[in-house]
Amino acid sequence: MRSTILITAVALGLALTACGKKNDEAVNTTTTEINATSMSNESSMGAAAAALPAQQFADAIVGSDMFEIQSGKLAETMGSTPAVKDFGKMLVTDHTKSSTMFKDAAKKTSPVVSLPMILSADLKSKIDALKAAKGADFDKLFVSQQTEGHQKALDALKAYSTGGDQASFKEFATTATAVVQGHLTKLEAMPR
Question: Under a CB-based contact definition with an 8 Å cutoff, are residues 69 and 96 in contact?
Answer without folding.
Answer: yes
